[in-house]
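By way of example, what follows is a protein record of this kind.
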Amino acid sequence: MGCITKHYLNEYTVLGVWKIEEDIKTLLSLAELDPEDRKKYKVFASTSRKLEFLSVRALLAELLGKEARIVYNKNNKPFLKDGSRFISISHSHKLTAIIASTNERVGIDLEYMSSNIGAISFKFINRKEKITRDPEKRKYHLYIHWCAKEALYKICDKEGISIRRNITIHPFEVNDSGEITGEVKTARINDTFILHYSRYNNYAIVWTKKNYERI
């Protein structure tokens, strides 16, 4: 299927989602790997990991052009090689998402809602956060919290942040899509962020952006 959405959030920021339905040969023709990419690609043994890697490059080419290249720092955080944009990437199961901006830090996370997330919610939900008791909405509500915290972790780009202790998602009533707020508090960060969430089939997707001068 390829790119299922390409949305300009404003004049600086674009978000795209790719649904992986192609085989490796097709994605290779769309991704146009450079020598460094090919070196990384050859390390992957599993077909699923190869498809993820190629879908990221194919989506990046769709959003920013085939000349765009991704590099990683020592913590495996992605950057554009030319430094022209902030970028955040997420993939789960059959979806890959990228958000990129010329002047705003960005964070995105998506998850395929497959596991019994309630059994591990104590690892990331803190006492200030409220989860619905509605059994039909509870799983999605928990996944929104998880994705939102991952997106905030990415946008802050700081080591030593505890997703449970340092990141709090303010209480909200869960819908198929909406806007929520979250805060990050550490010894070095004390800031509030607006996040946007949505549901695509059995996936939860959350993204956030903020002018870099304010983080």
Summary: Helices lie at 24-31, 35-43, 47-64, 138-156. The radius of gyration is 17 Å. The CA atoms of residues 153 and 161 lie 7 Å apart. The chain has a mean pLDDT of 93.
